[in-house]
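Hi! If you just cloned this repository, the fastest way to understand the data is to look at a raw example. We've pasted two of them here, unedited. The first protein comes first, obviously.
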Amino acid sequence: MSGINDEKDRLIIEELSVTNRLFTDLTKAGSWVVNYAPDGSVAAVQWGDGFRRLMGYSDRSDFPDEIESFVRGIHPEDREVFIGDTTVNAFNEDIMCKKGYEFRFRRKDGSTRWFRSKGILYRDAEGKPVKFRGVTIEISREKELDTLYAQLQNESASLNTIHDSGGCLMSSGRLSKRRIRNLSRRQRISKAAEYC
């Protein structure tokens, strides 16, 4: 009888594993767990397989269950801020549950991508942190779109300046519409400043 239950359990675990991999691959998300010692220091870290794949690694041999595995990959410009923020705010559930932390990470293949991590802190009966369970998602495309939006906003502001300057240039009688159209954007702005 024990053999039947063992086989059922094995099949259930296998099916859950396949489902979990499908979920992490489709959502581009990976999970992790940080366990704390009674003094509040990090006792152990567990990186999920989906998290490893997200970061460009395959298993524990190339991305061990150590905090250093993760910190080493954080972009140098983000590392100090990220470590400082997580040290100061790691116990702030409001930040980790709502906003999370955004950072760049250098993957195994050398590419750098943007990620956001969010998590939930679990406490014992005395309120001391016991476990921090979270998820990390890739947000590189979101960051690219934010950059593109900012560029479009700047371009729009420049075009408004040019449009306003064009009226000034034409009203001064010094340049015709045709000449204004043939000027580069930089030349139009320069001429507008000169004539207005």
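Ok, and the second one:
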Amino acid sequence: MVLLAVGGAAYGAVKLTQQDAQRVEEHTGESVEELSEEDLIAAMEELGIQSIELTEDDQAIIADEGSASPADAPAAPEEESYLDELEKLADLRDKGVISEEDYEAKKKQLLGL
């Protein structure tokens, strides 16, 4: 099943099966996550799709997502991946596997310089 928070926890949420979410996407040409609340509800009505009742666990998940602050969020995967890559490259440079020039060129590429 797919659980979608629509308009934030304060406005409500819509829970759909994966099949119904796919039907909405095919009907609208947009993913259900990108649709406004009004567009999603309209598409569901046009297709005769009923929202699945939210469980207490679903409501808790939505409440937790709404209360999370950006400071609580983990670092972006892109940030971690380029830092990891730089560390690996530095290790290879230190071991003599790649040259200082290769390291600097790749570092500039990763940092977008």
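That's it. A detail worth noticing about the second one: The chain has two domains: 2-72, 77-111.
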